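Homework-ish question, so no full write-ups if that breaks the rules, but can someone show me the predicted structure for this set?
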Amino acid sequence: MSLSTSSNFAKPDDAFRAILEAHRGLNDAQSADLDAALVLILANHIGDLDVLREAIALARRQMLDASQQQQQQQ
Amino acid sequence: MAQQSKTRFGYRRHSNQDRTGGNAAEYPVVVVGAGPVGLSLAIDLAQRGQSVVLLDDADRIGEGSRAICFSKRSLEFWDRLGVGGRMVDKGVVWSIGKIFHGESPLYQFNLLPEQGHKRPAFINLQQFYAEAYLVDRVQELAAIDLRWRNKVIGLEQRNDHVMLTIETPDGAYRIRADYVVACDGARSSLRQMVGAEFAGKVFEDQFLIADVKMTAEFPTERWFWFDPPFHAGRSALLHRQPDDVWRVDLQLNRYADPAFEKLPENVRPRIARMLGHDKFDFEWISLYKFQCRRMEKFIHGHVIFAGDAAHQVSPFGARGANSGLEDAENLAWKLDRVLRRTSPEALLETYYAERSAAADENIRESTRSTDFMAPNSHQEARLRKAVLSLAKETEFGKRMVNGGRLSVPSVYDSELSTADGDAWRGGPRPGASMPDAPIAARGRDPAFLTEAFIEAGMRFTLLEFANGAAVDAPDGVGVIRIGGHDGFSDSAGLAGARYDAEPGTAYLLRPDGYVAARFRYPTRAALDAALARAAGIK
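A: Not a homework solution, just the prediction itself:
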């Protein structure tokens, strides 16, 4: 299996909203704790190390691209 | 504090020391370092018929308990050396580990959940006892010449041998060795003499080890705490040893002052907080940082490195002494064959290939444990916190909690192995160590496969599950037959189950008890080919 990046939710807005709302009222530290737990729970649910590694690679690339763009704008 | 040095040995002048000039005595093997690894290696070599000189720069054993956890695999090796029974009789047998977070138990594991093995998952035994029993065994073997206070101070590599210069209380002398095996520990001076680097990762957190003597009612289990109430924010370990001695291991911070923290009056309140009383005496206190590192090559010319001299890990997995013992059992039969010229010298390269891969695995496992115990960043600490809280209610969380993954033998991906040609649903694959199982012989006590392997001569051995006619085993190969009219019986069915055996199934075992090849219906030609491959004969 490889990482699916096609849209898997019938209503993507609902999924995004659910994650957003989970962070409502939390300070940054609490939010980071929540994300850490969420990542571990979802990673275990996926249960496939190759898919997890692909997901990590994609997330890292996005993060690095975004921070590079930010630096160029400054 | 209790007396630390348990046994002293006398230096004795050897007639080699009277030789002068170019007239140095010649030996096939010199082993340097009479710790658990060097002693075990020397015994294995001697039992195979080699004469061994074993040198040690000290004259005593027992500076603190040091390594305390010896694995099933190590005990099976020691059984082959004739010392396993003494170790187990003195040792504390355990297989249960418990992990706590704060005050609450998080989960527990059983390292040997099944019956039908001669040896337990682990025993705890002070290293000085293990060394003393090994020295006793050495003294029964005329082929080992153990020389205390013989310190190697010079090493010259020649084309096909090594010249050693050895310092003694009577001055220096030289000997010539076909092979030198350096088992001289993490601070190996032979490693420096061959100019090898020993690079790796240093962990900054400091750990305090205290062995305390007390009578206590704790069960014989390995207890590990994250963030216990008696040692907030850090980890702690409690483990039982023989003689009412308990190993306590407390994580300190990286800025702790070792000189201050080591003082018994400063250690005492920490331990008293943990135990809830202060009715104990100290046997040993040590403060350490650990390193995970290995030599790039374990073989330098005719000098071969084994144990801590070759690789070093953090202690939270009992992977130090046990992996050194696995080095010894891996090397002994190979070096014996090379010295007898029944295998080419290239066989020794497979010692490096197999044991360096094992060292990498041990380093990886112990680095992961250490990183879990001492997170390197705020985010690592946050992820650990998430795992620990998820572990309260989820199974996957429990399994992610890493309080040390305890030593299991590596499975070698080795050129000595013959790839499976048949279909297997289980059983040890080529490169794996032989699992034990209970078997019985007519008119004798129940026995174990590991015992049958010893009786068969600790050489290349065919383990066959009878199917009428016996397999035509190559010359010099031992045979263990299960079933049939003259074989061992497998009344519990465990040998058959653990080896995924059908009538006719045969495993070719190496002299160290690892699987070299396996067949559903072995032909003589296939066995000959597998044997040649396993002996490094191309």
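Now go work out the reasoning yourself. Hint: Residues 462 and 508 of chain B are 5 Å apart (CA to CA).
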